[in-house]
Design a protein that fits this description.
Oligomer: homodimer
CATH architecture of chain A: Orthogonal Bundle
Distance between the termini of chain A: 18 Å
Shape of chain A: globular
Number of helices of chain A: 16
CATH class of chain A: Mainly Alpha
Largest sheet of chain A: 2 strands, antiparallel
Chain lengths: ~375, ~375
Amino acid sequence: MSAGEGGNGSEDGDERDGGESEAVAEAIAVRRELVDEALATRLPVAEPERLYRASRHLLDAGGKRLRPVVALLVAEALVDVEPLSEDYRAFPTLDAADDARSEDASVDDTRIDVMTAAASIEVIQSFTLIHDDIMDDDDLRRGVPSVHHEYDLETAILAGDTLYAKAFEFMLDTGAPAERSVAALSALARTCTAICEGQALDVGFESRGDVTAAEYLGMIEQKTAVLYAAAARVPGVLLGADAETVEALAGYGLDVGRAFQIRDDLLDLTAPAERLGKRRGSDLIEGKRTLVTLHAREQGVDVDGLLGDPGAVTDREIDAAVERLDAAGSIAYARETSRELVERGKGRLDALPDNEARARLRELAEYLIDRGY
Amino acid sequence: MSAGEGGNGSEDGDERDGGESEAVAEAIAVRRELVDEALATRLPVAEPERLYRASRHLLDAGGKRLRPVVALLVAEALVDVEPLSEDYRAFPTLDAADDARSEDASVDDTRIDVMTAAASIEVIQSFTLIHDDIMDDDDLRRGVPSVHHEYDLETAILAGDTLYAKAFEFMLDTGAPAERSVAALSALARTCTAICEGQALDVGFESRGDVTAAEYLGMIEQKTAVLYAAAARVPGVLLGADAETVEALAGYGLDVGRAFQIRDDLLDLTAPAERLGKRRGSDLIEGKRTLVTLHAREQGVDVDGLLGDPGAVTDREIDAAVERLDAAGSIAYARETSRELVERGKGRLDALPDNEARARLRELAEYLIDRGY
């Protein structure tokens, strides 16, 4: 249902400044650990144990927690606090930060559990991965068996459905004033609808030969980018940002989320299997449309003829296919498109105060397209 | 994931007064039509069309809409209005009905869309049926192919996931004050978690020989009854009933919901396939635990040996198995248990004003265990 993640390592960096890259890697790593702690606390292995073990299976297998990290950084940038200086579980709101801005006295001293909101987003992501792996019958994810392979189909469907409900429970549990909770819940529900629609479009594309690049970008907006948009929007809503800022934040998520998906499609072609945590070239084998293959088709490449029998594709065939796509300029085209999206997304952050957390969000946008896995 | 429904017709009524039975049948039928209209309006076949057609597949195939009918009747009984005299889409709250009770002036003139809340509950029910049929690989539901048979596995998973999100969208769209929306959403999310846990327990029971009747009753409370509880609780929450009344309403749902599930298990053994909308004896064939088989086992019946090869079970074998269960007193035991639950559930309605809608809710409880399909 959404983009894969897995493995470790990096490759293929560009000419960015090494210091920036280190700063964002460190910013992600330290927040990721806090997110992991929150997930462990909020999603204990309760009864029925098998169901909850299956629900935790992919969360325990790793993942970079990029979406919740976006949420945490947005909160810090918005309220303009020193990074990591505030307790994410009792985060000051904008009302408290600037009393003059507040029209509702009741929220002045409210503290928001932005960590639980961030965890909610990650739990949605994990639910979509579990159901996605069933739909694609992928047997590996993050280097471990997918949930329906490790457990069974019934348990995997139910584990996804359980996480789905838990995400809503979490989002109801941030301590935000009711109006803001309702707005956050509404964003979450609409995001889930959009993800399903995007995934259905993606599946439908596989049997169509006339998909355009514009249709593809619309599809990945729904399938992938809306969850980044929710990750950036929700803290804005909960902390009391104005409507314009909230829309700018959502726009950042939509732009960098699409860039992330395009990068993911590229990695599927170029990254080694041990870094992907799954087989390289799986999209090509499954006949999935990507910006790369859509561009290549427009250049006259017989995309459907790139590989032989899908049941017996060799790595050598994948290499040859990638060479053809590269020669057609399609890999460069996809890289360029993701670069443009990242630039636009970074521009949207002008709506935030100029501070260190905002700088990290800009770098995180770069990271999404420079990451090697 | 939850109890089956399907087909038409009736059988096996008891000695109840014929007039009461007609009154509740009429009360259900007229509200069911209104629920159908609301579902058609609120769940149009949008893009991607195939996804939304699949999402509507079981809703379009029928169903008695018992849960939303409970919600509508609870609203009428609570606010003490003449049945069908008020617009369900703009229902008066208890605050408006009794200004003296209101502590919050802002909700005095609020009107609540209880119909959309009722539709939300039915949409959750439909999502669980779609995923349930995948898990059991049932090919028929309500007399039509199940969604994964009519469409495919991918589409069925996504159709269920889409309805899941839509149910939350609906529940956010009742026009209720934010505090009450949050409480309704919280009930809905916790209900979904419980349904998943109940379904996981049900699946787990199939491989256990030592399940007790008490465990079974706990399982069906989670798998089935919690959604009846939500149907009765949510209008109480949205319309501003006090906590004690809300708990009594939820208790009614838990009692009659369990009675409904026990009746459903009985019907699986006794009702003709054309009324069930699926094969008779399917629970026996699939090795599902029910109150009937658990009781029979306690009476020394070799339940697992009642049928031969699961792939080649004849109707004659089912008949013989049912006779054995009947002879052990197990069918009578299950009937009696459901009868006790219904009586207790009816008693909980004392928390409501004494009016016609309350009388219908009492009769509806009877109907749940007397229905022939």
